[in-house]
Amino acid sequence: MCGGRGTRLDSDAEKPLFRVGGVPMVDRVVRALRRSSLEGIYAVVSPNAPETAAHLDLPCIETPGEGYVADLGAALDDDRVSTPVLTVAADLPLLDGEVLDRVLDVHENGSLTVLVPAALKRDLGVSDDATFVDDGREVAPTGVNVVGDGPDDAAVVPDRRLAVNVNTLADGRVAEQWL
């Protein structure tokens, strides 16, 4: 998923092309996907990120750019995509193939929301504005999910590679510290 506006990231670059450690975040995410056991990769783009679409050497699925949920729905309507499908946000520069394969191993059926403890995000010093309580624990979404048919499940994976998503310049500095 690489078609967002990135309004909180005070940068002239499109959010997926924001550089962490000198490399666009989307390139780091694509590298992680290629190093995982996944078989196919599609970039979900929108009119909000035309330079990202031009930058990527991947098949692209065009969406209207109406927000994450609407764009995900549009991507899932594409004939090239079938469920279950792993979705990954382009703002996770610490991802690697190993952690993505761990997520795939946790998935049994249906959909899976991957969460991290909110305390981990605070300990790392990254933004945690989307926290909520799940099963008595304060957690935050990671930007990594499995969308499938059937029941929804959640997995809390306390891993900084999933906890550091870059929404602000300060988040970008934290990510660079962990590269």
Folded structure, characterized:
The longest helix has 10 residues. The mean pLDDT is 93. The two termini are 22 Å apart. The chain is built from seven helices and nine strands. It is an alpha/beta fold. Strands 5, 6, 7, 8 and 9 form a five-stranded mixed sheet that branches. A two-stranded antiparallel ribbon has the order 1-2. A two-stranded parallel sheet has the order 3-4.
List keywords for this structure.
9 strands, 5-stranded mixed β-sheet, 7 helices, alpha/beta
Briefly, what is this?
The protein is α/β, with parallel strands linked by helices and 179 residues long. The chain contains seven helices and nine strands; from the N terminus they run ββαβαβαβαβαβββαα. The strands form three sheets. Strands 5, 6, 7, 8 and 9 form a five-stranded mixed β-sheet that branches. A two-stranded antiparallel sheet has the order 1-2. A two-stranded parallel sheet has the order 3-4.
